[in-house]
Design brief:
single chain; alpha+beta; Antimicrobial Peptide, Beta-defensin 2, Chain A; 3 strands
Length: 64
């Protein structure tokens, strides 16, 4: 039983995202808060792809 607790703690530590590493934007709220726009398909000219807005077909785009 103690082995299960140890295994669970190792899995929790290894699967936990690191702060600052996973700065990917994955929803429309964080996209809009970062000053970007949600655009279907590809990002318009002069915009950089920085994440997605919920689904992978809608991109989060920001001016560099």
């Amino acid at each position: 039983m103690k082995v299960l607790y140890l295994l669970f703690s190792f899995l929790f530590i290894f699967l936990m995202p690191l702060p600052g590493v996973s700065g990917d934007i994955r929803n429309p709220v964080t996209c809009l808060r970062s000053g970007a726009i949600c655009h279907p398909g590809f990002c318009p000219r002069r915009y950089k792809h920085i994440g997605v807005c919920g689904v992978s077909a809608i991109k989060c785009c920001k001016k560099p």
